[in-house]
Design a protein that fits this description.
Layout: H1 2-57, H2 60-69, H3 74-105, H4 110-115, H5 117-125, H6 128-133, H7 137-158, H8 165-190, H9 198-233, H10 235-252, H11 257-271, H12 275-311, H13 319-326, H14 329-345, H15 350-375, H16 377-399, H17 405-426, H18 429-433, H19 437-458, H20 462-474
Helix pairs in contact: 1-3, 1-5, 1-7, 1-9, 1-10, 1-11, 2-3, 2-9, 2-11, 3-5, 3-9, 5-8, 7-8, 9-10, 9-15, 9-16, 10-13, 10-14, 10-16, 11-12, 11-14, 12-13, 12-14, 12-17, 12-19, 13-16, 14-16, 15-16, 17-19
């Protein structure tokens, strides 16, 4: 069991490494070729599209993977799959019809909205939740790697000027659509067609809605905040916010695979009433999030100025404060995945999770609406951070009796202290030694990594030694 969990996380991590490396290559290129205004238009259009996409998938990712994880036979798995996917399919068709009505009323950027029909089509076909539930992440990882590599190649071949924004949108949406088709080829080898049961459709629909509500709250506030930002400050400010947010979300991608690995496992252990094992998973998961998050957060504080200048170009220097404001959300989102997704959702407590996310979303929208006209992307960044923090605090209140809270706090402050020491060791080096920007950035990253891992080694950090031991044993 443990080897499979480690294997699944490594597959997820391989994919996250890929989708981290690819933006490192494409973001500087697209930022310079498309420019801040076109990047902002793309982000503004995508904000509307993602709101529709949310209603297509109904958060099947969490509900579906949990349901598949608890099945015992091929027939049962197939029946559960078709029961759940039927709901997803019908919802997606209804949403796409509503989207067609919506774009018929849109006067600006009409062609971009039409192209995004492929984006909604990929949501209709998305069955990655099935493979997460079966804990077969190798197939989804392989598919995703193929899609990302093809997307990367096409971007460099076809995107040459701001007028190519429509091509950029087409490449991304069409590649996602084709990638979902590939997954169906794998799935149909493992499952058999079984007629959806009407009674089960009803039984699945309402619990699925409960899992869907927190997704509505969390995703809609992010997208509505962008729409508000575009309305009151314009697409250029959206571009500044969007590019910094992409960097932060790219980093968060290293942490969120934990949910895909732990959620079906925790759901299974919880159903078997093995609460001791659930608590162990929580301790490991929360500690791992802290171990990874703090050096990245303090690292972004130290290198943020030079990183934005080199990575996105001088046109995006206003993204620097946005990046630093959003940096702590790496930890907040990571821990919310632990306490909210991995625990509250996996143990069938979606109402508590929904409440935490919804309250944070409401406060975020209020903050953004009041201050965005004066402070632009800065206000939107603080609004997002406030939502993540408030949601996490509420989730911790709900779960603190389940987890070893004193151990969690001790580990969190330990990794925070190590991250702060790392920050002090690298923040002033370029100015002190007069290093050129590129060389200074590379040396800061290398030295910072050495300092942080040296602290883990010297203090004989238990989690770090365990992870290293697991990796070495696989070799």
């Amino acid at each position: 069991m443990k080897n499979k969990m480690i294997s699944n996380y490594l597959y997820s991590l391989i994919y996250q490494l890929l989708i981290t490396v690819i933006p490192i290559i494409t973001l500087p290129y697209t930022s310079r070729v498309l420019g801040d205004k076109m990047i902002g238009i793309d982000a503004s259009v995508m904000a509307y599209v993602q709101i529709f996409a949310i209603f297509c998938i109904l958060n099947v990712a969490n509900y579906g993977s949990r349901a598949i994880a608890t099945t015992k036979s091929k027939e049962q798995t197939s029946q559960v799959f078709w029961n759940i996917y039927t709901i997803q399919f019908l919802a997606s068709v209804a949403v796409i019809l509503c989207y067609l009505v919506f774009i018929s009323t849109v006067k600006q950027n009409h062609v971009y909205y039409l192209i995004h029909l492929f984006t909604l089509g990929s949501s209709l076909l998305d069955i990655s939740w099935y493979f997460y539930g079966k804990e077969e992440l190798k197939k989804t990882t392989t598919r995703n790697i193929m899609v990302r590599v093809v997307t990367l190649i096409c971007i460099f071949l076809f995107i040459k000027s701001p007028d190519d924004l429509w091509k950029y949108i087409l490449i991304n949406s069409l590649s996602a659509f084709i990638g979902q088709i590939v997954l169906w080829k794998f799935a149909l080898k493992d499952i058999i067609f079984m007629k959806p049961q009407k009674s089960e459709l009803k039984n699945n629909f309402w619990p699925m809605i409960q899992y869907f509500l927190p997704l509505i709250a969390s995703q809609i506030y992010l997208n509505v905040n962008r729409i508000i930002l575009n309305t009151f400050a314009g697409p250029t400010e959206v571009g500044y916010y969007s590019q910094a947010s992409k960097i932060v979300r790219m980093v968060i991608g290293f942490i969120t695979p934990l949910s895909a690995v732990f959620l079906p496992r925790i759901a299974n252990e919880f159903d078997n009433k093995n609460h001791v094992q659930v608590r162990r998973y929580m301790d490991v998961s929360a500690s791992f999030v802290c171990l990874i998050s703090f050096p990245i957060i303090f690292g972004l504080f130290a290198i943020g100025n030079d990183f934005i200048a080199l990575f996105l170009g001088p046109e995006f220097l206003p993204s620097i404060p946005v990046l630093k404001i959003l940096a702590p959300s790496i930890l907040l989102v990571g821990l919310a995945n632990v306490f909210g997704v991995q625990l509250l959702l996996a143990t069938n407590q979606p109402k508590k999770y929904t409440f935490s996310v919804t309250l944070g979303a409401i406060i975020s929208l209020i903050i953004n609406y009041i201050f965005v006209g004066r402070y632009g992307s800065i206000a939107t960044s603080y609004a997002e951070l406030a939502a993540e923090l408030i949601g996490l605090i509420i989730q911790i209140y709900f779960v603190y009796k389940v987890i070893d809270f004193s151990s969690f706090l001790k580990n969190m402050f330990t990794y925070a202290f190590f991250g702060f020491i790392m920050f002090l060791s690298i923040n002033y080096l370029p100015a002190l030694f007069g290093w050129p920007r590129t060389m200074g950035l590379i040396l800061q990253i290398v030295i910072g990594g050495i300092v942080y891992f040296a602290l883990l080694l010297v203090t004989k950090n238990k989690l770090f030694y365990t992870l290293v031991g697991k990796v070495l044993s696989r070799n």
